[in-house]
Amino acid sequence: MRFILKVIVVALALWLTTFIVSGIRVVPYEDTQLATVLTYLLIGLIFGLVNAIVGTFVRIVAFPLYVLTLGLISFIVNGLLLLLVAWISDLMGFGLVIDGFWWGVLGALVLGLISWLIGLIVRPSRD
Known about the structure:
Elements: H1 2-20, E1 24-27, H2 33-61, H3 63-68, H4 73-91, E2 95-98, H5 101-122
Antiparallel strand pairs: 1-2
């Protein structure tokens, strides 16, 4: 249930990111409203899988760089992961379109901030 909620949060954050960052857009597989929503959810699923598998591996391997740069390398890593999601979704024939590397870095920053804010709102309370 938590994974589905995280996919929905990332999809919503990606939708808001496309309004804020002009270099990032989503191309649905059809021109209907349902197809657009499903495309955002599929990209959110791809992003979650890439972040869980590739992102974890990169963060472990690049740990010395994180220490040397005081964590600033995370912006570059997150931008590259977002570019990887765009490439994977492009192979599937739909999805995320990023105009360049720096748009990917900015998009990853905005996506992370919006996901964090939405996560604060929908996080279940612990009694």
